[in-house]
Amino acid sequence: MPRPPLNSRALAKLSPLPRSFYSRDPRLVARGLLGKLLIRHVGPHSPSVGECGNRLILAGRIVETEAYLGAIDPGAHAYRGQTARNAVLFGPPGHAYVYFIYGNHYCTNVSCQPTENVGYVAGCVLLRALEPVCGIDEMSTLRGLTLPPNPKPSQLRQLTSGPGRLSQALAITRQHDNAKDFCSPASDLIIADDGSPAPSILATTRINVTRAPLDEWRFVIIGSPYVSGKKLS
DNA sequence: GAGATGATCTTA
DNA sequence: AAGATCATCTCC
Questions:
Q1: In A117-172, where does DSSP find H-type helix?
Q2: Is A126's CB less than 7 Å from nucleic acid strand C?
Q3: Nucleotide nearest to A100 (CA to C1')
């Protein structure tokens, strides 16, 4: 039985993943998020999307993530303890940690595993790439790109292949979205399961993490053309 | 297609 | 001074 198509109407009915999903080892959360949908509601009370209209949904399927283990992970922002920037990571799981990087870009994370019952605190998962699902035109506008009428995957991937790109495509900023609850049905930024089958996953080292270069805590959907960087072998 | 470089600014 | 990046340039 084919599932119904993922138009705005179908996406609007999906419920956010429960908080228990995020109350686990960040590596399990990072794997579990692959294939899930990141859904952004934009409207009169949401961040500006230019001339995109009043009420619409932007969504993408998560195809690439990275786990950050917090207090025991030298590559993690939380490694050196709580600061004004990373305070969200020391709060309850399932909340957005959005930070500004390299003077140009935002990166979007989900907090997880804030308790000490497995030996570390303040973990999170960085969302690194999406397969565009809904709101292609609006995402193009937000990214400042012009795509042809029937874009190929190689063109679509310009929208959301990379943490800075996907954040821009969904109008995610620290000002608007840091500390936002991914688990609240009232949230304009959620992650949901549409029942798609569990993907095949490849683990690699994390991108541009120099302080812990060997840990294979980056996860990608095998074969997806929407993963960031070069094509994998 | 691949590798190098500059932009730009927050954080420690 | 470095960084959980990206667009653009040059040269294969």
A1: 136-143, 153-160, 163-169
A2: yes
A3: B10
Q: What is the pLDDT of residue A43?
A: 75
Distance CA A54, CA A176 (A): 18
A85 Cβ contacts chain C strand, under 7 Å: no
**CATH code of domain A8-221:** 3.10.300.10
Residues of chain A with pLDDT under 50: 50-53
Beta strands in chain A (DSSP E): 37-42, 56-68, 96-101, 105-112, 123-134, 189-192, 201-204, 218-221
A98 touches strand C (CB under 7 A): no
Which H helix or E strand runs over A9? helix A8-13
pLDDT tens digits for A21-54?
999 999 999 999 999 999 999 875 555 554 444 5
A156 CB less than 7 Å from any atom of strand C = no
Shortest CA to C1' contact from A89: nucleotide: C4
Taking residue A202's Cβ as centre, other Cβ atoms within 10 Å add up to 17
Residue A136: the pLDDT is 96
Is strand C within 7 Å of residue A64 (CB)? no
Provide, in whole angstroms, the distance separating residue A138's CA from nucleotide C8's C1'. 24
Domain ranges of chain A: 8-221
Residue A184 (CA) to nucleotide C11 (C1'), in angstroms, measures 51
Report the C-alpha gap between A68 and A200 in whole angstroms: 21
